[in-house]
Amino acid sequence: MNRLRGQAALMVLAMALLVTACAGGKGGSFNMQNIDIGQLAQNLRGLRAVSESEEIEIGNGVSETLLGARPLEKDDELQHYVNVVGLWVARQSERPDLPWHFGVSDSDAINAFAAPGGNVIITRGMMRLLRNESELAGVIGHEVVHVVNKHHLSAIQKNAFIGLLGQGVSAASGRNQQLVNALIGPTKELYARGLDKSDEFEADRMGVVIAARAGYDPWGLPASLQTLAGMKPDGSQLALLFKTHPAPGARLEKLSLAMGTSFDQLAGGGQSSDRFTRATQRLKVADAR
Amino acid sequence: MKTKLRLAFGVACLSATFGSMAEVGYTLRAVDLKAKPYLDADTVSKLPEKAELEIVSRNGPWMLVKTKNKQTGYVRLLQVRLGVTATSADPGGWLPPVLPEPTGSSRPSTVATNTTGIRGFTEEDLKAAQPNKAEYEKMKSFAATPVQASAFAAQAQLSARTLAYYAEDGKQIPGGKK
User: Fold this and answer.
1) Whose CB among A30, A83, A120, B74 lies 3.0–4.6 Å from B34's, allowing a Cys bridge?
2) Which residues of A touch B106 (CB under 8 A)?
3) ipTM value
């Protein structure tokens, strides 16, 4: 309760500061080429729904920070591969026409991230963990649901307002940079804390369906979670994933209830390991060194 | 080095248990070992909770497994956890799942959780991150087009199908696609 009161007080303070700051600016807000930061601050606070173009701008900023933590794996063939698989899966969702971008990051950690507007980053460690393309499709399906259902966007909306002030809205230096700067703090906070558990369970449940719609074996995601459930949850490879997600065992239990035997007739699609093996073979070579 | 030694020890223990290197697991609860991958197939035997298994192959919701007493049959994937139980061969309570090499699995067997020398995506990396616009531009440059995605799917013999979502209790959510 005290925390809620504190947040409310901060929100009031932040609103007062923004009103003060905006009063000195032309039109009461900071106009950029296409995005009005003053309006966006209101939108992020939940006063008005964020438009799709704003969502994409926010996603750009979040993705830039995530890629600032680790850059992309230097393997063009692999990057192209995850993009065709990823787009094929994402096009089976309710938001097929977003500008979907997928990337494999140069990281041994086992994790995957979604950012608003159609961005998905999978670590090299996760790619190594997966057995085949249907498991990859399952992981992608899970991340696609986070985007489709705006899980991260909603979480950012809850706390970005303070971040916007804290990162200095008045220090406008260009269209994207201003937004990117404003999102750095909230992005770091959100991706270190994780989403609500209910969002993760929902992404599992719906991700399985999206992968199955794309013709893949629906059991790819459960199989990858089963692998995670068999691993020791400490160590830096898994620390962030386990901190920010429900335990894989709990996710499997939930999936077991939701899937039952309903998906049995859809089993077997896209399990070819050959394509996946070819696309990821350089990761294995690097692993052996 | 520590990881390699640990892995080597793990392989030795598992080899002693099953006689060959394979992915291993155990039953989450008492389950029926089925003769075929169907719910109404004959039951080979009843396995207790934490029965150790060698995973022979996977088939959607089913796993073909071999038990310690050499019985072979099918159990549901979601009734199995990988690794070994706390009471079995691993004195530390856990061993990494050991998987067969490329045939049927492209995953390397060395997926133990390294604790040193990894290029992470740790919380500390995240806290220290500065936006990398150039890298995001690079990521966008790899984007596929819908035509490329469809061509890939056709070549991979993946067909789109209509499927509704499911609620937590397994009931289908009506309303077409969603």
Assistant:
1) B74
2) 130-132, 273, 276-277, 280-281, 284
3) 0.82
